[in-house]
Amino acid sequence: MTQPELFLDPAANRRRDALISRGIHPRTAAAEAARHTDDALFWRRLRHADELARVRTNLKNRGGFVLSVLRDTSGMKYGPLP
After folding, report:
1. DSSP secondary structure of 47-67
2. pTM of the model
């Protein structure tokens, strides 16, 4: 049984669509969008991931890199959020 769009969180839908546009699989994007409850922090992390991806010249899997930056909540791997 599928869930009607009426009962879904519109902010989660925007987060999911942003992740899909960056090359992340739709099911993974939906799970990540639902996992991030703080909308402002999600967009800050996504902007940080985009900036880091712009600097990297040899990215073969941009979506995987963006996910890795999003999941680095401690800032140990990619540094703190600006």
Report:
1. HHHHHHHHH-S--S-HHHHHH
2. 0.81
